[in-house]
Amino acid sequence: MPRWFAVGSLLLAGALGACGPAYRATAAPTGAPQPASETRQQGQRYVGVWALVDNANNLFNVRLQPDGRATSTAGSEGTPLAGSGALRQGQLREQGRWRPWGNGVRIDYADGWTDALLVGPSGAVQWSWAPGEDRLQPPSNHGKAVRVEGPVAAVVGIYSLQPAQMNLPPYTASLLSNGLAFNTIDQRAGGAWRLEEGKVVIDWVSGWRTSVVLSERGPLTVSHWQPGADRAGAPTAVREGRRLD
After folding, report:
1. Which of 66, 116, 169, 239 sits most deeply, having the most CB atoms within 10 A of its CB?
2. What local confidence, expressed as pLDDT, does residue 1 receive?
3. Letter string b/e over residues 114-126, b meaning 16 or more CB atoms within 10 A of that residue's CB
4. Are residues 134 and 192 in the same domain?
């Protein structure tokens, strides 16, 4: 996925720091082959949500599933400045596969990019290679990797939500670990989310508010308030949604 998308100064404040010197090598970590069971167990330690950075020190998240799937909140087309205009689904989601690699895991995305999560002297680090680059050479981008924990980790990801307007198709919403939100329905597509009494509340730059009741099974309950509507009153519409990651 492109590592140039810009969200300005809206970063994961203080958690990631600058992409300064990190543990690097001219090749992937090597050593005696590990037993297959031990290798699989090592890889499973990386299952969950991670906060990574592009080469401009901008945040994106990736969720690693136990079955080897990986979903990034940065799409193959990148993401422009938050709220600056309309977005496409290709800017908000990228899928790939992960596998054990060296002392960490390697994530290969459908568009040819690779991220690796490895253990360096100061903790977990991220290496990234552009399509066509030799993965046994120094990465084109590197920085700290931070595991996202707790309720925030449960929320971060990609969603398909039915809009208030019945004549419109479902839209994609991307929720990042720094509280930013993006969608593919508004002409000004940025927003901010927060947890409130067990619900995810998203206030969009467009003036709409969306509330999502998360569920591990079945569809999600999605409530919409149009611009100017009383936020304490009944929603403009109640629809359904689902997770895409």
Report:
1. 116
2. 52
3. bbbbbbbeeebbb
4. no
CATH of the domain at 55: 2.40.128
Question: In angstroms, rounded to a whole number, what is the distance separating the alpha carbons of residues 182 and 91?
Answer: 10
pTM of the model: 0.82
223-228 own/partner pairs: CB under 8 Å, 24+ apart: 224/163, 224/164, 226/164
Which domain-ending residue is among 96, 130, 149?
Answer: 149
* Whether residue 77 is found in the same domain as residue 133: yes
Regarding whether 215 and 121 lie in a shared domain, the answer is: no
CA–CA separation, 204 and 182 (whole Å): 8
Distance, in Å, from the CA atom of 204 to the CA atom of 194, rounded to the nearest integer, reads 12
AA letter at 86: A
Residues 142, 3: contact at Cβ < 8 Å? no
With contact defined as beta carbons under 8 Å apart, do 46 and 56 qualify? no
45 shares its domain with 141: yes
Counting as low any pLDDT under 50, the low residues of the chain are: 2-35
- pLDDT reported for residue 40: 64
Please say whether the beta carbons of 189 and 86 come within 8 A.
yes
Structure tokens at 241: 């949604």
| Structural domains in the chain (count) | 2
Q: Are 133 and 218 in contact (CB under 8 A)?
A: no
Is residue 206 a part of any domain in this protein? yes
